Amino acid sequence: MPVVRIPTVLRKHTDGAAKIEVSGSDVGEVLRGLVAAHPGLSEQLFDGDKVRGFINVYVEDEDIRYLDGLASPVGDDAEIALMPAVAGGAG
Amino acid sequence: MNAAAPVGSFCLDRVTWDRLVEHARSDHPYEVCGLLGLRPDGGFEHYLVPNAERSMTYYVMEPRALLRAMREIEDHGYGLAIYHSHTHTDAYPSQTDIQLAAYPDATYLIVTLQDWDRPDIRAFTIVDGEVREKLVVVRDRPVHAPDPVA
Questions:
Q1: SS3 letters across chain B
Q2: Which of A7, B66, B82, B106 has its Cβ near the most Cβ atoms within 10 Å?
Q3: Chain A: residue whose CA lies nearest to B85
Q4: For each successive 10 residues of chain A (91 residues), what is the average pLDDT?
Q5: Do A90 and B31 touch (CB under 8 A)?
Q6: Given 3.40.140.10, 3.40.50.170, 3.40.50.2300, 3.90.78.10, which CATH number is that of B14-138?
Q7: What is the ipTM of this complex?
C-alpha cells in the first residue's frame, strides 16, 4: 500500500503520525483517502478539489507538478511526500 | 512595527553567519534562500536551496532540493531555521514573508544586503501572521561547521 510521509509541521493533524499507509492507484485517490482518515488535513492540503498552491506533493521525490498532478499513478509501494512550500521575499 | 523589543535569542556562530552573507552576496541582486538544521550540540547543518524564481523580490525554494534538505533535518530531529536574503530592503519580514510563512516552529532568518558593506542578519518567528523578533547572538567559536550542502 502506498505510504504518505507527513512533515513535522502537519503532524498535529495526524495525531503525530509521520508515515501513513493509504490505498489508492493515483495521487488524488491516496490524498482523498488520507484526508478521509485525518479530516484536519483537508483544509491544509485542499482548496476545493485542487491541492493548495503552496503545498508541494511528491511521488518518489518528484514534484507532481512535473508529473500528472493528482492523476499521477502510484505503485503499491510508492512513497508520497507532502511539504508546505517555503517562499517569501521582499515583495 | 520594527520597534518591538526582541523576545528570546538565536545563537549563530561567526562561520555560519559569514556563510549566510557569502551565500546572499553570491547571487546578488537576486534573493537566495536555504535552511539550517540546528543540531543538539549547538552546531548547524547548512543547506543551500536554489531560488526557483531567481528574483530580486521573491523566493520559492526549489521543491526537490527543499524536500531533500527538510527530510535530512527531520530525520535527524534537528531544529529548523529558514533563511533568505533581502537585497534592497532591511532585514524584516515583508508582507509576503508573513503571508507565506508556513512553519510556525521555525526561526526565520533574513540576511540584508541593503548596505553591501554592512550586511546584517535578523531572526524572527512568524506564527499566524504575528512576527516576533529574536536577538541574533554571534559567537566566535563554531561547534562544528561542515561545508554547506549544495
A1: CCCCCCCCEEEEEHHHHHHHHHHHHHCCCCCCEEEEEECCCCCEEEEEECECCCCCCCEEECHHHHHHHHHHHHHHCCEEEEEEEECCCCCCCCHHHHHHCCCCCCEEEEEECCCCCCCEEEEEEEECCEEEEEEEEEECCCCCCCCCEC
A2: B66
A3: A89
A4: 96 96 97 97 95 96 96 97 96 79
A5: yes
A6: 3.40.140.10
A7: 0.93
